[in-house]
Design brief:
With 334 residues, the protein is of the alpha/beta class. It has 2 domains: 204 residues, Alpha-Beta Complex (inorganic pyrophosphatase (n-terminal core)); 118 residues, Roll (Diaminopimelate Epimerase, Chain A, domain 1), CATH 3.10.310. The chain is 37% helix and 18% strand. The chain is built from 12 helices and 12 strands.
Length: 334
């Protein structure tokens, strides 16, 4: 972010304003951590911020500070539209294309106030007035920390803000295992720990509060898994029937795709999840090393993301989506 943009944003934030903060649809730990971290920061600057999520977030993130104040567009479209239309500034975090907000895109396309994008995904759109986009970062939460430093407001970062940002850094770094985890990442986290952030408790809240049904769903996904050693690939799937059988709740499939990468010799892992109500197959891609799943998702499954983590979709049947994948992967060099 250049000095001119920083100065103009400082001027925008110099007086109290109504501010809307928006994560992407189906928000994950980085989306919720960054939006709530920014929310608490803006409160300290005497603004009136509101986080408006396109749809609900997983229950395992409901402990985040002030998560109960997050408005969900799908639950009250009229009121959320009013909030967005009355906002004097809009922040969009952890995404870079307005279609990632679902139906909210229709409202956001009409706003005339400044929009500030902060995001670490590839190929940013051009909708924002100010764009802070950097794919070298492993998480948007790390970028929010930087953004606060740009504004010369590091002294305002407290345990609450640190807790939110730590959560997104932890989840998007795969527990500090992904390649974009740097020395700076750890130095930022050390700042949070010095502020009192519960770095030993947060992983328990995120990863160890499983329901028995969620563990059984994981078991089924592992039973379904197919491994193609010669292609260094593992993939699995969950049908709507299987989701229903184990009383699926939002967030229950989070992280399942990563199990494929724990298999010796596997560098490409995929999960296909059927959602009958949306008439869509949601697909998650993960890789180790140089295999670019962002490009793979963009080329074949109307998706995108990062080099080592991406998402996609298919409007075909689950069976046909898997068949298409098998045909593509048989011709792909990994």
């Amino acid at each position: 972010m250049n000095e001119k943009d920083i100065k103009e944003i400082q001027d925008l934030l110099a007086t109290p304003k109504k501010i809307a903060i928006i994560p992407h649809r189906s928000p994950d730990g980085d989306a919720m951590g960054s939006t709530l971290g920014l929310y608490h920061f803006l409160l300290k600057l005497n603004h009136n911020p509101v986080v408006v999520a396109p749809n609900d977030f997983p229950e395992f993130l409901a402990w985040l500070p002030s998560s109960e104040k997050v408005l969900v567009y799908e639950n009250d479209k009229e009121y959320c539209t009013k909030i967005l239309e009355e906002a004097e500034i809009i922040f969009t975090l952890d995404f870079n294309a307005l279609h990632r907000t679902g139906e909210m895109e229709n409202v956001l396309n009409k706003v005339t106030v400044p929009i500030i994008m902060i995001d670490h995904h590839q190929s940013p759109g051009t909708y924002a007035t100010y764009t802070y986009s950097d794919t070298s970062f492993g998480s948007t939460c790390e970028m929010i920390y930087n953004f606060i430093l740009f504004l010369n407001q590091k002294s305002l970062i407290d345990k609450t803000i640190g807790t939110c940002l730590y959560t997104g850094i932890l989840t998007d770094s795969g527990g500090f295992r992904y390649p974009k985890t740097t020395g700076k990442t750890h130095r930022i986290v050390s700042d949070f720990i010095d502020l009192g952030v519960e770095n030993t408790e947060i992983p328990n809240l995120l990863f160890d509060n499983n329901s028995f049904d969620r563990l059984k769903l994981l078991g089924r996904a592992l039973q379904n898994m197919k491994v193609i050693p010669e292609l260094k690939t593992a993939y699995t799937w969950l049908s709507q029937k299987e989701l229903d059988e184990f009383n699926y709740e939002k967030g229950d499939t989070e992280g399942i795709v990563n199990y494929g990468l724990t298999i010796k010799g596997i560098v490409f892992a995929v999960i296909f999840i059927e959602h009958k109500e949306e008439n869509i197959i949601k697909i998650s891609f993960r890789s180790a090393g140089d295999f670019d799943v962002n490009q793979f998702a963009r080329n074949h499954f109307t998706g995108g993301g990062h080099i080592n983590a991406a998402g996609g979709k298919s409007n075909d049947s689950l069976e046909n989506a898997i068949k298409k994948f098998e045909q593509i992967i048989s011709k792909t060099i990994i």
